[in-house]
Amino acid sequence: MKPIEVTHQLWVETWSGLRTRGAGKHEAACIWSGKRSPGGDIVHSVTFLDDLPGVHAGERYHQLSRVTINALFELLRARHEMIVADIHTHPGDWVDLSPTDAEHPIEFRRGLPAMIIPNFAKFAPALDGLGLHEYLGDGAWRRLDSEELGQTLKIGS
Predict the structure, then answer these.
(1) Contact in structure between 115 and 132 (CB atoms under 8 Å)
(2) Taking the chain, what is the end-to-end CA distance rounded to the nearest angstrom?
(3) Using 50, 70 and 90 to split pLDDT, how confident is the model at 28?
(4) Hey, which residues does 84 pair with through a beta bridge?
(5) What's the CA gap between 121 and 152, in Å, rounded?
(6) What's the rounded Cα separation, in Å, for the pair 155 and 157?
(7) Nearest 5 degrees, angle CA 26-CA 30-CA 33?
(8) Looking at residues 43-72, what average pLDDT do you find?
(9) Which residue, 88, 87, 131, 86, is CA-closest to 112?
(10) Among 106, 122, 120, which residue's Cα sits nearest to residue 59?
(11) What is the CA radius of gyration of the chain?
């Protein structure tokens, strides 16, 4: 998987925003957007899906309506950005993709990263405690091992 560069400020904004929106009771989700290139992606923005219309969240699910998806893509077009990664929380420390997660990514793009932050993001997540998954196409995913995760997710200053 190609590298993803995100500033430390956006990293903190991401997990703290997910923690706030999930309130320790349900999943919360966001996307990172920015510029994608063959050599690596650069994150410019975080958009919390819970802030868009038509989102329904429960302890173990997060559903987006067509209205939500349309609002998200309108926002991205206005910013001249593309989705870099799909991110959401899970209860507990399980960070694999659920069957629902695997079947319903934010977009069906080979190479799409999907990141799971454990414990509803109640704590600052350690990188080795995250689940980072790559969409391979045709409904298939693979989870990056800890070495690949460290080489892929680049949190800068």
Answers:
(1) yes
(2) 22
(3) very high
(4) none
(5) 20
(6) 7
(7) 175
(8) 82
(9) 86
(10) 120
(11) 14
Model pLDDT for residues 88-134, shown as the tens digit of each residue: 999 999 999 999 899 989 999 999 999 999 999 999 989 999 999 99
Q: Which two tokens stand for residue 97?
A: 């993709």
- Domains annotated on the chain, with CATH: 31-156 (3.40.140.10)
CA distance 103 to 2: 22
Structure tokens at 34: 């920015």
Kindly write down the DSSP assignment for every residue of 51-119, as one continuous string: GSTTEEEETTEEEE-HHHHHHHHHHHHHHT-EEEEEEEE-STT--SPPHHHHH--SS--TT-EEEEESG
pTM value is 0.93
Q: Can you give the length of the chain in residues?
A: 157
Name the least confident of 11-15, 68-72, 110-114: 68-72
